[in-house]
Amino acid sequence: MTRIQQVHWELDMDYLGHPYYVSGNAIYHAFGMQLEHDVHQHITASHGMFVPGQFGTFPEEHSQSGIRPYMGSSLPDVERYDDLFLFRHPDHPWLLDTRPRDGLNAHDIRFQSGMPALAHETIMGRPDDARKQQQTTRWYVNAYLHADDPDVLPLGEDSVAASPPRNRWSVNADHPLDGLQFGGKRNYGYGTTMLKDTQVVDLEALDYSRLEDGEAFILELVTPFVLRSEYPKANNVDVPWWWSVDDEAQLRYRLEKVIEGGDVYELETVDHGVVVGYDGDRPVETAMSGLTRVGNHSKYGFGELRVKPVTPDETNVNKQIEKPKSEH
Amino acid sequence: MLPHVTFLRQDRSLQRGADRIRDGRFCQQRLYTCGFNESIYYPYTSLKYHTLLVASLLDNYRAGHEFPDLLLVVDDSEEIVPHRTVYAGDRFALRIDEDADAQPWARFGSRPWQSWASAWKRLTAHPLDVNHDKHDMALDANLRRIWSWSTALQYIEDLETRRENA
Questions:
Q1: Which of A44-53, A127-136, B5-14 has the highest mean pLDDT?
Q2: Are A221 and A320 a contacting pair, CB within 8 Å?
Q3: Backbone angles phi, psi at B142, to 5 degrees
Q4: 3-class DSSP state for residue A292?
Q5: Residue B131: strand, helix, or coil
Q6: Which of A169, A234, A262, B66 is the residue whose CA sits 20 to 30 A from A54?
Q7: Rounded percentage of chain A residues whose pLDDT exceeds 90
Q8: Which pLDDT band holds residue A323 (cuts at 50, 70, 90)?
Q9: Burial of A148 (0-12, 13-18, 19+ CB in 10 A)
Q10: Backbone angles phi, psi at A16, to 5 degrees
Q11: Among partner residues B123, B144, B145, which is closest to A252 by beta-carbon distance?
Q12: Torsion of CA A246, A250, A254, A258, to 10 degrees
């Protein structure tokens, strides 16, 4: 049984760090301080995506439909494979078009000591005739954990369900996922979070019918795929054979880092956001691997892939492919 | 009447674009231009870029390019292609065209509603130093979050101007 534990943290203070996501490595080290070593070593964390706590409507491929108030601030139930990716894409297609979507989804960037920090709340000016519109949007970090020992998850099992509502400034000291800090200048209070929501999902119990019924597929890199790493003893890998890529030079590359102790190791990656074709014949298995992630440093959040069905279209065979009805 | 058409009529500086859209029949056939996501509440939207985008689309359609053929192309900063270039800055330019001429590109997609973020995230290269420059990383991170094309271009212009003045 492959289980993951989804986690949703609310940012209490601005975050000074990598603006694309909180790295899985940072998340792993943050809760490591609250766990015993022999539990901690079994757990891997995904990268943490930034989510505005705004109203939304479920995307077409999601198992639920309709509008959900404050969608971004908690975890909806997961029944289908596609439900897992609700908060994993930075453009957050679920945000309402009737609200200033881009203004709410783009990060407010405040400069702290010359460094760009992501604001933990977005405050919008309110026109006179819009009294009831949401004025302040809180920001969240969304990630998921999995473990090679199934008994280890969920973390904090005893301390979540029965907890009464807490005020913002109390930390549930029993829960290993509460009160964590991410990013830089933590000793000044930056990057403080509160655990807002968490739930366990059994990957094998999900509905994969969209993939089972699909004829052709594309892969989207939700997080970068690491090809080469300076980390000691890391193996360099090639672009997987089951990616369909016309010309590898046309893939977009970006450098990333793994920070361990005081050392910084540079990574050469295929950038997240890149979309490639799928040349394999086992989309469901690939989808599950894509969740536990592939490539170097997958334990630290890299190599998260999403498999999407597309309509095979002869004119699109050599082009980058999009699904007819929805982005995903 | 479609809002972007009204914008074009009021924009005297883009005379050739305005001439084209006086043919009302042409406008109705080209409903694809609704595809640029504009929020009517968010005051950040940019008339200038909206106009340039619509004009570029119209120019492409006049040349017989269909929407699924169109690409977002990154050009060098000096490279301005009349009625195709939609953004021209000191570091790079952006164009909507059918042919990338070996420049970084991303296909729009088969549907007219495709967002800016969808194109930006699929570019074969980004004209930013995201490997080392924290400001460029923050810009890139936000460009992946924006759907409206004119908002994105205005945002790029604002940050590039700020960068130049810093």
A1: A44-53
A2: no
A3: -75, -35
A4: helix
A5: coil
A6: A169
A7: 73
A8: very low
A9: exposed
A10: -110, 95
A11: B123
A12: 20
Spell out the residues 6+ positions from residue A94 whose beta carbon is closer than 8 angstroms to its own.
Answer: A56, A57, A58, A59, A62, A71, A72, A86
Mean pLDDT within B51-63: 95
What residues of chain A lie within 8 A of the CB of B44, using their CB? Answer: 100, 102-103
- Residue A47, pLDDT score: 98
CA distances from A112 to A15, A186, A250, B136 (A): 10, 13, 36, 16
pLDDT digits (tens, 9 = 90+) for A249-289: 899 999 999 998 889 999 999 999 999 999 999 999 999 99
- DSSP for A163-204, please give it: PPP--TT---TT-TTSS-B-SS-GGGTTTBEEEEEEEEEEGG
Phi-psi label, residue A28: left if phi above 0, alpha if psi -120 to 50, beta otherwise:
alpha
Helix B3-10 × helix B47-62 angle, to 10°: 100
Interatomic CA distance for residues A175 and A195, integer angstroms: 9
Residue of B nearest to A323 (CA): B110
Phi and psi at residue B135, to the nearest 5°: -70, -40
- Residue to substitute from B46, B110, B149, interface A, most A β-carbons within 10 A: B110
- Mind listing the domains of chain A with CATH numbers? 3-204 (no CATH), 209-316 (3.30.70)
Whole-angstrom distance, CA of residue B32 vs CA of residue A115: 41
pLDDT tens for residues A98-124? 888 888 999 999 888 888 999 999 887
Confidence (pLDDT) at A172: 61
Q: Please tell me the pTM assigned to this model.
A: 0.87
Q: With cut-offs at 50, 70 and 90, classify the pLDDT of residue A3.
A: very high
Write the residue in A18, A102, A254 that is nearest to B151 by C-beta.
Answer: A102
- B139 backbone dihedrals φ, ψ, rounded to 5°: -65, -50
Residues A147 and A1: beta-carbon distance below 8 Å? no
Q: Which residues of chain A does B152 touch, with a Cβ-Cβ cutoff of 8 Å? A: 102
pLDDT given at position A280: 95
Tens digits of residue pLDDT in A193-204: 999 999 999 999
Residue A255 has which token pair? Answer: 């450098």
The ranges assigned to domains in chain B are 3-165
Would you state the pLDDT for residue B3?
A: 35
Give the gyration radius of chain A's Cα atoms: 20
CB contact under 8 A, A109 and B142: yes
| CA–CA distance, B100 with A122 (Å, rounded to integer) | 38
CB contact under 8 A, A99 and B122: no
Do B105 and B73 contact (CB within 8 A), yes or no? yes
